[in-house]
Amino acid sequence: MMKVLNFINGEWKESSSKQFAPVINPATGDAIGEVTVSIEADVGAAVKAAKAAQKKWALEPAPKRAEVLYKVGYLLKERKEQLARMLTMEMGKVIEEARGEVQEGIDMAFYMAGEGRRLFGDTTPSELKDKFAMSVRAPVGVVGIITPWNFPIAIATWKSFPAIVAGNAVVWKPALETPFMAQELAKIFEEAGLPKGVFNVVNGDGPTTGNALVEHPDVRVISFTGSNEVGRKIAEKCGRSLKKVSLEMGGKNAVIVMDDADLSLAVEGILWSAFGTSGQRCTACSRIIAHESIKKELENRLLEAMRTLTIGNGLDENVKVGPVINEKALQKIDRYVQIGKEEGAKLLTGGYILQEGEYNKGYYYAPTLFTDVMPNMRIAREEIFGPVASIIPVKSLEEAIEVNNSVDYGLSSSIFTRDVNKVFTAMRDLDTGIVYVNAGTTGAEIHLPFGGTKGTGNGHRDSGVAALDVFTEWKSIYIDFSGKLQRAQIDIDE
Ligand code: NAD
Prior knowledge:
The chain has helices at 40-59, 62-78, 80-91, 95-115, 154-165, 180-191, 206-215, 228-240, 263-275, 295-306, 327-343, 397-405, 420-429, 466-471; strands at 2-4, 6-8, 11-13, 20-24, 31-36, 122-125, 131-139, 142-146, 169-173, 199-201, 219-225, 244-248, 253-257, 285-291, 346-349, 353-354, 364-365, 368-371, 388-394, 409-410, 412-416, 434-437, 453-454, 472-480. By secondary structure, it is an alpha/beta fold. The chain has a 7-stranded mixed beta sheet, with helices on both faces. Strands 10-9-8-11-12 form a 5-stranded parallel beta sheet, with helices on both faces. The chain binds nicotinamide-adenine-dinucleotide (NAD).
């Protein structure tokens, strides 16, 4: 049984509450560890340590800061298999996907370490003689990171690596369900030689620990990934204190299948993005917008393909769909299925909690497919976060795009077609932060911006160079070497 503590100022500490919460393996229902549950005082201690450490850290040359990240990358690589197995045990995703998630962390480490030698600003001509003008990125200070359980290590790397290379210090509150990855990442930072206090982990729940981080006056920026409901609350609080806040929230992502699509490819893409991670991805495909002329054929092919999905413990290499995170999630998914039926959608397969044999102890939901779903139904608009997909029939590309754009979210979308004109129209008109052509709705690469429009976010992005915008302030600098006072923006007749 692993006992997970906080990591504050380079030390492993129990919370001052003395309370622990169990860590449950969702595949078996077994308690596999426990985690310290923090209160405001613990957050205060972590922020204090971060604030003190940040001043010195920011003075290290950025390429030196990057050296730590390179080491972190190598350590993650060395431990990839061990981390992936631990991740599957605490979160449930199948081992192949867990390996993919750790790989994202590795890629992000090397990519952001490279930023240590870039962190580009601009130099630009001054409007005056003998004057030099430039802009540089300055660290914000103490960064508060709040993350969900569905990507317990990748999301933390998307946020902490750019923050750290840019000269900030971090206090991270992971999800209470998945503290193992937080512990392992902290150990790796420690071994890589990151100075004490630059990276801190405070475990705990949202309303107490997370909220304390949001409300702490010395935390200058909050980077949050999670549900829309919680993101809104955080944004309101940050708004009141004028704190910078970056939000990455839910999705209601669609795959559009046109009449000229390669249907075998579309089925593969849908299967992977709808039922991978048991549908618990912010980019999961939960809507299939199908041209009416291929709808029947697509339904049949999807049903056939879904029969090949092995469901079980993600540590088994043959398993394709693991459990969902907990009992609460099972009940939520099942509630949505009932709502779908009541709304008049046609259930093609699935729609129940798996309870036989080994499924009884874990949290398994049968991969579920609805058809003849109308765009205004709740199952077509609200995030279910489980292995449930809905086919929505349409008559044209224009209608498909309109349906795609009609939801409150705007994270990811995809179109399967062989027609170049349709491809470019969709690329232009789909109102989502990420668009895929002839691929499912998942598969983002770490060097491009990641995030969405409308209810998915508030205009910021994780990943790519865009992530640096969250963790830096622009500083514009003017150097006058004329030896006299030159006044800009003043009309002077010479
Ligand atoms: P959640 O919103 O319930 O929790 C996310 C984090 O916020 C957790 O660490 C939680 O403890 C904390 N929290 C909860 N209440 C809080 C409060 N009042 N103040 C401060 N912190 C608080 O989300 P979840 O169930 O862990 O994750 C699933 C959600 O995350 C889904 O909506 C999914 O779409 C979203 N998600 C989005 C992305 C993205 O990049 N857009 C990626 C992964 C997951």
